[in-house]
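Re: the 322-residue chain
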Amino acid sequence: MLAVQAMRAGGPEVLEAVELERPTPGPGQILVRHAAIGLNFIDTYQRSGLYPMRYPAVLGQEGAGVVEALGEGVTRFAPGDRVAYSGQGGGYAEFNAVSAARAVALPDGVSFETAAASLLKGMTTEFLVRRCHPLKAGEAILVHAAAGGVGSLLVQWAKAIGATVIGTVGSEDKAALARGLGCDHVILYRHEDVAARVKEITGGAGVSVAYDAVGKDTFEATIASLARRGLFVSYGNASGPAPAVEPLRLMRGGSLYLTRPTMADYTATPAELDESAGQLFAMIASGKLRIEIGQRFKLAEARKAHEALQARNTIGATVLLP
C-alpha cells in the first residue's frame, strides 16, 4: 500500500512516499480503508521532532473510510461500516489498523472528506467551548488564527452560542473569511497591536477567554488581552512553544488562569469520545458548523501539504486523498 513516512526529524523534505505492507488488525482493532485523511498541525510537530517519535514514522492522526476487516474481539463495528478516527497515528496511508474503541461511527449525512477534515479539529473545538470553559452567550473571546483549521470552527461554534468573537488573521483574504464565519471584529496581527485593539473593542475590559494555538509569537499579546480573572487557553504551538510562566505573572495580570489542554484528556473513554463526536456531527447536521476544506492534496503530495501548512498559506482544513 502507498504510505508517506517521515524518515527522520526535520522539515517537509523528510517526508517520502513509500510502499509498505498492508497492516493486519490485531485484537481490539479495525482495519480502515481510507477515503480521506486529515492534515493537522500536530503532524508538523511530530515531523519536526518537537513531539519526538521513532523514525521512520507514518504520520497522520485522523482519517475516515470503511471498515475493511476486524481484529479479534471487536463488536463495536462490522465490515463495511463508515467510520472516522483521530489521535491514532499512521494515517498517511491507504489503510490503517486502529483501536476500535477510539473510532466513531460516521453518520450517512457526513461525508468522508468532511469527517477527515473536521474530527480532530471539531472535537478539539467541542471540548474548548463546552468543557474546558463552558462558553456563555455575551462573553467576549479572542481567537487567534481565526481562519485556520480549529480557529474557523471555534468562531462558528462560539457565535452559535452567542459569544462576541474577536479574531486575529494574517491577511485581508483571511480577514474576509473570518468575517464570513461570524467574527464580530477582525484584527490583522501583522499590522495592528492585538492587545491594544482588543482593549479598544472591549472598552478597556479585555476578553474573558483567549484561545491561542500559535504559541510563542502571540503569547505576550494574548496575556495582555485578558480581562481580570480571564482564562488563557494555550492549545497549540504553530510558531513554537509558548514560554514558561511564573505564577506571579498571572497574579499581576489580574488573577489570570492558564491551561494547556489536550484532546486526549477530554475524550479519555469511549463514552466521552462518542459524546464529543456526536456533538460535533449534530452541529454539522444543523448547519451551525460549516466545514471549510480549503485545500486537497494527493496522499503522495503530503510534503507539499506540509509546506503550505507550515507557511500559513492554507485556509480552513486540508485533506489528503489516497
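Residues 137-260 form a domain with the Rossmann fold fold (CATH 3.40.50.720).
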